Protein 1
Amino acid sequence: MRWRRFWNRKQRDNELGFELELHLAEEIDDNLAAGMTAEQARLAALRKLGNRTHVREDVYNMNTIGWLETFGRDARYALRGFRKSPGFTSVALLSLMLGIGATTAIFSVIYGVVIDPYPYARPHEIWAPLVQNIKTNRPNSFSAHRLSEFLEFRKLTVFADAMGTSPDSMLLTGNRSPENLSTILVTGNGFQFMGVEPVLGRVIQPSDIRPGGEAEPVAVLSYRAWQRLFDGDERALGQELVLNDQPHTVIGVMPPRFGWWTGDGVWLPLPEDVRNDRTVFPIFRLKEGISKEVAEERLHALTLRLAEQNPDNFPKEGFTTTLRNYMDITVASGTMQTSLQLLFCAVGFLLLIACANVANLQLARSTARTREIAVRLSIGAGRRRLLRQLLTESVLLSLLGGALGVLFAVGATRAIVALMPDFYVPNEARITVNIYVLLFSLIVSVLTGILFGLAPALQSSRPDLTHALKEATQGAGIGGGRRTRNALVIVEVALSMILLVGAGLTVRSFIAILAVDTGFHPERVLMVSLPLPPQRYPTLEQRNLFAQQVLDSVRNLPGVEAATVGNGGMPFGGPRSAYAIEGQPDSEERRIIVGLAGADYLQAIGIPLRLGRAITAHEVARAEPVALINEAAARLWPEGEQPLGKRLRLDVLTNHPPNWLSPEANSPYVTVVGVIGDTKNDGLRNEPLPAAVAPYTLLAPAERTLALRTRTEPTSMLNAVRERVQAIDPNQPVSRPITVEEVLGFQTVQPRFTMALFSFFGLMGLILAVAGVYSVLSYQVTQRTHEIGVRMALGARRGDVEGLMLRLGSKLIFAGLLIGIGACLALGRFFESQLFGVPATDPLSIASVALLLMVVALLSAYLPARRAARVDPLVALRHE
Amino acid sequence: MGRKSKSDSRGDMLQGTLDMLVLKTLLPAPAHGHTIAKVIEKTSDEVLQVEHGSLYPALYRLEDQGLIAAFWGTSENNRKAKYYRITPAGRKKLIQERGRWEELVQAVMRVLGPAAE
């Protein structure tokens, strides 16, 4: 076949027609010449030459792709059919749009977050080391190492490439308002390792590390930093950024979709100077031909050696060293990934409901078309040909539905992204309906079409011809068709039961999370972080003095009830420290959360004192080794023993990160002076962990938090606070103001996301299932009009007829509900991780959903039943 | 040529044979479909009957393969007609086919042996 001939095959066919006419004419001439009469000559010629149309078809088919031609014809025929039954078509398209659209939308999220979350070159070939305690299997401060260790790792021959990252933050000053900027230090080869090109200038190169290990003062901007600090001006290249009082030259700008450890900070070369033995997070690429296991073995041998030299950095009970693929350590690998997987199942169910619905409609339609199909079969259409035609119809329908679904998905994806909790998604993830997503929905559409089209097509392509031709006029259905349809309705009800129970459970969890007692009063508390760059505040005294001055200054602001200074995320967390209770055996692996706070801590955060007393301002000022413990920590003492007055060893007070400062002669021992109420310091979902609060003067991290309880709207105090702080140090940024209520809000974002999507999909499922119940019963009423007429003529009353149809409907609904409940109980454990405060087999959720579904489904069964009861027997009997 | 029902039910040998006969017929001079059929029937003493159903697909196939070429002309009875002429590729093909055919016939004859008394 040649394409040129394919395109003018019409013209060629005309030519052939002409040729055949000529042949016939010549034949007739010959016959006449042989002495036949005109009529004889014509008939003889025709007889001899046979079926001319056949010849034309043969030649025509030589020049076409058979299936394409048939497909075109079938498609045109199907479209005509769709136009002729707009009701069927619109309901089917709507079902498919919802099913395929929802699936596509969730797939686009999964694609963006789980399948392709990174812009780096070959991200699945990146490995991160993981040192795990051999007993507890807990990671040893997750893949963090020392620079000196990293330099050893790099020498291993099993790695083709190794890069290290050391996250930091520096004070940005110069001729701009001071702010705390994320500065991510990467080894010289870091950007080559990542394989991402800059949009402007150049990236950090190995030559940016001088032979002595010092780093050139250069900086690569993130896209956001470029926009924010330089308004996206190309002249940013070569300009200076003053970071911790040291000027750095801007050498490049990265594209928007590059956020290695920071989305809006800068990247600096990491000095390879082990005198400042920074924390470094290494990643590797394996040398070609080296298996993960071999690399792990070599890495473990090296780590063991390093642990001998520096046992403090490694678990004492022994450890394993493994490599984890970077694709498995996305931010979304935890709760979010499970949530997405479950949502994908949910939309899968939704799609199945849609399929069942359309299959049902198709079955009903093909029953109505029995006669048409029987006629086609009887005039010689092959069964395979007929099957193909019916499947073409279904696939065409699902492709149209898929096209609508993609439109739906574009909107739904945007809505989902808006609902998504930021920090559960890698900052480099891009969630859009891209080509892969479109490809996915195309495949889903075709498969869907085959799935819902196959059963009806098989059913209707083998009718008993004589029976069908005879019976069709009486509008009777095919016996098997009814069974299939009933089964489909049961499946729909069961699936939507599962979806709705899922939705109900997420709603209950969300409510439970909102109702959690945090143990403190979160309202009207403003928190402001105060970075204390080591260059500006090199000593403990300076850091403590600054904190004291700020506290004294803001405490007297009108509208401030109480103020305190502390570390990090009070009252939610803090450094976890090894500890020991004096007189009790040491515990190597247990940790206690250490809070560092000022005297007014309890008033500012609103935590009740249970026993003893609070820490006094005097004790804070003199850095007395005293502490408050929470009730969880008080339970660490043996039953009946009173913790007040006892001593507790907090290792972090003496063994802390290098840029933290503590008094020269600090002892790790503190005396317990009071017991305070438990607060939710390990996330709202988890039980409070043991915690201790010591005066902030005992330990000064490089960044502190100021917390204020205000009398009015807390954010209205921000300007006044900023003024007071900058009166003390004009170069001090007052960054990241946030209220405690906002912090609590973060805790509910993820459950809210899950709840919103499950509820939405549950609702869709309910609508589709109800449409399914309604259409099947309506159809049965139409099919049985004759029978109903007979019944009524024989004396059945309206109530009897109504009852008959309702019984039929409720049988299907109850069967569906029972299967659904069974499935919910069986599938419950997969759902547990998404739930809080409610078991996956929560009887209340299951019962209320069953009730809701039953009422709605029975209502949808009632309408056709009432229509059945209105049948006028005279009309019904004459109807035939 | 046997009566055909479906294009795919013809054996390759028969199909090839008709092609060969068509090429042979066109060797002396161009001709249109009817003449080709007539000549084959006449020269085979009416043993071989050529039908539309085989002839025209064969002509279109040969044209597609570039073994013959078509042009419009006028028939003996003054009708506009589509004439076919053999191309150089067609001549080469005919020689090949003829060789193959002779080999085949000889082989078959060897198998059959001398005719029984």
Protein 2
Amino acid sequence: MIKYLLKRLFWMVPLLVGISLISFLIMHLAPGDITTTEAGFNPKASQESRQKLREMYNLDKPLLVQYGLWLERMSTLDFGRSFASHQRPVFWEVTDDKGNVTPGLIQEALPITLLINMLSLGLIIIVALPLGIISALTQNRLPDRSITLFVFIGFAIPGFWLALILMYWTGVVHDWLPISGLHSLGFERMPWWGQMLDSMRHLALPVFVSALSGLAGISLFVRNGMLEVLHQDFVTTARAKGLPESAVVFRHALRNALLPLITLLGLAIPGLIGGSVIAESIFAIPGMGKLFYDAVLMRDFPVIMGILTIGSALTLLGNLLADLAYAWADPRIRRGVMQ
Amino acid sequence: MFAAALRHSALPLRLLLASLLLLAACSKPPTETASPDYGQTFAPEPGGTLISATIAEPSGLIPMIAGEAAASAIASNIFNTLLKYDKNLELTGELAQSWKVSPDQKTITFHLKPGMQWADGAPLTSADVLFTWKVVTDDKTRTPYGADFKLVVQAEAPDPLTFRVTYPQPYAPALDSWAGLQILPQHLLKDEDINTTAFARNPVGSSYYQLESWRHGESISLVRNAKSTQGQAMIQRLISRSIPDTATQFLELLANNIDYMGLDPVQYARVFPSRPDLSKKIALYKELGNNYTYMGFNLKHKPFDDIRVRKAINYAVDKQELIDGVLLGLGEPVASPYKPGTRWANPELKPYPYDPEKARELLRSAGFEDHDNDGILDRNGKPFSFEILTNNGNKQRELSAVLVQRRLKEIGIDASIRKVEWASFIERFIKTGDFDVVVLGWSLALDPDQYSIWHSSQQAPGQFNFIGYNNPHVDKLLEQGRLELNPDKRMKIYHEFAKILLEDSPIVYLYAGYGLPAIHKRVKGIDNPAPPAGIGHNSYDWYIPAPLRRKEITP
Amino acid sequence: MKQTLTKAFSNPLALIGFFIIATIMLLALFAPLIAPYDPDAIDVKAILLSPSAVHYMGTDGLGRDVFSRMLFGARISLLVGIVAVGIATAIGVVLGAIAGYYRGWVDVFIMRTVDVMLSIPTFFLILAVIAFLTPSIWNIMIVIGLTSWMGVTRLVRAEFLSLRNREFVMASQTLGARDARLIFTHLLPNSLTPVIVSSVLGVASAVLVESGLSFLGLGVQAPQASWGNILTDGKEYIQFAWWLSLFPGLAILITVLGYNLLGEGLRDVFDPRTSKNKL
């Protein structure tokens, strides 16, 4: 077990280097840099001003040197400062000598994205589990078919289309939910329970729309997992022993079917951190997706690198945790029989 | 037990959804059933909140550093400049109460208004102006706007109310540049690094508003500045919400959550007329901005170096069709690189009419005919085909390119369209000169000087004369225009400049589109029709009567 | 074989999926014959007309007939899906086969690369690359293909790993069969069923990704019509020009649904473990 853990951690380092190298190269595929976008086409911005800007940002040095400089800073977890946002720190806040705190970009965007994605994942699981179970138990009959159809429709609807329709219906035609944003104006003056309610109302649509497309994957997974387990010998044995159906389903089949779900959740982790660019744009949510998209358009290299690296690191960590959780949960592995 | 569950297989989901909606619906305070009559007139009174939306959040609120439109829109409410433009686009004083140009036209002396204060109570004097000038011309400052101010050879503040600058030779655009430099407080910034200071997120200014709060990525809230050097604005609070998608912005406008939005022609001319209920609460305005859209030729590439070819294409493009199709009629044709109706636009010039026959004739005289009968003109065995480049994200330019492509096809020119993302566009095509034709726009300053766009010395990679225009007569006119401070003489210079430009046809003027703001009717005091400076010229006098204000949560 | 077909046809959802896809493919194939107008025919006097007998699905912002554009858009959406998946499958099968057959450090290297690619959020990667290159239909297909091969690699490798220890493989090896022959005639054909399922599902995802890219302005370029860009052009006026949103939205929905139903149906058919009649 410990050996396994150490081996995995050891592998993470070259993986991270590989990821950062790929990201760096892709970014520099792109023609143009921050001076192009910021002062690019403003007749008031002169050529020498722009050249000075390039020098200050180190953009005129060769690629390898730039990567080296970046890696050097990264080793101290200093992701640098954003080119485009007036030198705001990419990752964590910085306090200057006067005590003014400048919040970091990722520091602000990540919690929002994580919150929405976790709520969404939570909603998916709450809904997908019963759907999957019912599907498995009624295999090939009407409930199974209609659930399958329903979750597939959920997957197939283009998210931004559904979002706009729902926003129009719930926000313009009726006054049920806010249309966009995270907080109402006057949020600071609400009592704590008012604030909670306000946040929930703002998150309802984004969470719903992202959950809808994820339903299909998990409910089908649960269904197939259950079916596989239900057809195994030990289930037949349990039934032959005369156990009531509910015990068979819940105590035996379900627990075995759920184990791989942990791994699946592990695979869902990159999605947790890579916020959806489109949903955040439509709902005006300042999360990781929007941060990344803006950085791409502005050629804000430190931010792009920061997001890709942190995102990937968290993903690798998440996968590791998921594997560990699986290894712990599955008695076969825990007792060192398999693997 | 299971049979029952199966029958209601979607029950858990339905329950969940229903409870979510129920929760949401029940928890809102009861809304007004009847909305107030927004058409009524009211007397002006201070107070209220105006909410607008922006596509991109400013990166910081120090205008010389931030540079983008979103930043200057908000910062202009916080900071003042020495001079400003009045409703008729004439220069008048903002921080300066008067100014004098020396007889040799090289020195400008500004006299500041007495008794001015910053929002934190510190006095605002010429020392602040001098300080700001030093910062903008400092090489370490990451600003692209230093060029105009670096021309100053001597800047001094002989007393707290006087600021004097001296140029090596008369510089006509000087006054316009001083109408664009926002003055910063020396007492707060003198020990700071302007590029990284926290002041950018917490600015202190001298104008009508000051920053109240900034929720990053969500909204910026400005509140009235009691110590404003310009008097008091009527509206108490300005809130700018960050909403990146225009479809979402429009929904927010319809739902009364924002008060101000720039519409596109379809929303203005088709959506609103189809919904009479909207006109009860939202008013539409039309104003001509200081920009134009054009099709530019790379004058260094054949065959665009041939004036007959350029004129032919100019005749082949139906500009009225562009205005009707792309702008739904909401724009004006342009024949000079200036805003129609201003003194700098030459009233005698008329755009090239739509004349495909003449186009074909001109092309024939340049050697282009359809020798192989494939529908495409050719010369020396090579077909006349090229790529029209335009930037991503601008629907109007894209639609314009499509219409132009069609008209060109009709006279036998094969044009294809390529949309490129902005940074790539500049780096890979414009700077390298690797393009044939572009569809772009110019957003102009109010000063008529266009030296950086048309002078033959401005053709280096990264400079603005990227089409490669080279006309010695025009060069001389542009140089003269910078030296001539007399407005009437300047006007003649630029009129002649525009005339030559139209004759040379290095670009095809497509149109100047109207700005189409939609403003909620609760906002009163708007000048309609808009004066030359636009409806926003008196935005500080707009007011929102108490009965029409939003219900706000008060502390 | 007969058993497989019977099984396939007994699944009504898979049948629905099959018919949906067949219909869309036929419509796309015969688009030039069916379309009443030239999809690029501009008419500035007919801008944004609602559906009528003259224009079945109304007209768009330049007066072009939406129905005709939808038909040609079907070609684009299908083309993007199929080519992208083709690229991904080709890469995935080759890499998975090599990793699964040869094992050793080749396997380790390939699988680590898979891990690296899987750790980077895919949409971000696609977004960055397309934004940096020029958005064009070929770039889109290639980039989607280059970012979706990882799943196929794992599937093929897993199949190879489980097959290579079977007796028929060892028997062939003892008889002196060369690697290539083994791979191509024995291992690959038996590994293909999960690949087929994954490809069908992959087309569905590719169609959705293209529509997402169109929303961001990075999809198929004007004046070419794609369902994604017709939808995006009308997003500012969904309540007014509802036809610009409804028809492409439904088209994407139905097509993706069709592919998913077919793919899952095939998976049910090929996977003996979920068969109900196991006992």
